[in-house]
Amino acid sequence: MLKxxxxxxxxxxxxxxxxGVIIGGAFGxxxxxxxxxxxxxxxxxxxxxxxxxxxxxxxxxxxxxxxSFIQVVVQFLIIAFVIFMIxxxxxxxxxxxxxxxxxx
Length: 104
What we know:
two-stranded antiparallel sheet; transport; Large-conductance mechanosensitive channel; 4 helices
C-alpha cells in the first residue's frame, strides 16, 4: 500500500494540482487586494464617497453587511473572468484535449 501511495503522489497530475492550488491561493490574494484596495474605493468615490466595506443594514439586532458581500462578488467575477480567458487561450493554443473543449 505504501508503494502505491508513493506512486500516486509522484504522478504528475497530483503535483500539477498542488502547484495549481498554491498559485491559485496567491492569485486570490492579489485579486482580493485589487478589489478591496483599488476598485471598491474608486467605485465608492464614484457613487458619493461610500466605503463599500462599511455598508450594512440593521435587521432587528443583526447587522447585515451587504457591502462586504458585494466586494466578494466582484472578486469572484474577476477570478472567473481570468480563468475563462486562460481557458480560451489554452484552447486556441492547442494545450487542451478534446474532452476539455467539449466541457467548456
